[in-house]
């Protein structure tokens, strides 16, 4: 077999994650000579999607945004953590994550906005969900983020807000 590079390491780690062999994936992650954001995000996703590994996901995320770490926290990392936070039901951690996203400028993509809205909505924090949507820049408002806020509004019975969102959308389209 030819020398392994970051792509082959990622493929091997990903295969073990998909087969629910997270302990072996972690061993490979720790011994891989080449790692990038894909490597870490794969592991982060594997942990977050598996019962009993949530704390490992949080610790890996903390490690990722440490100053000397080779993999940067990106949009995928943040949306994965928003989903995990909603799953865990930890509103405090969700607010900390939102604050981190704002400080680092990672709250400007449609995916990030949607993840924030979903996270807050699933925790029953409608005001925070709506504020996350309203506080985003115009370029980050896309169909996905609008659908997320519409779903949050419907969940809360805020039909008037849904109508306002559709009305504003029609104004933009005409």
TrEMBL record:
PPR repeat start and end residues:
36-71
Q: Which GO terms fall under biological process for this protein?
A: RNA modification
* Keyword annotations: Repeat
What Pfam family does this protein match (any one)? PPR
- Name one molecular function that GO assigns to this entry: RNA binding
**Coiled coil, from the record:** none
Give the stretches traversing the membrane: none
Q: Which PANTHER family match?
A: PENTATRICOPEPTIDE REPEAT-CONTAINING PROTEIN (PTHR47926)
Protein name stated in the entry: Putative pentatricopeptide repeat protein
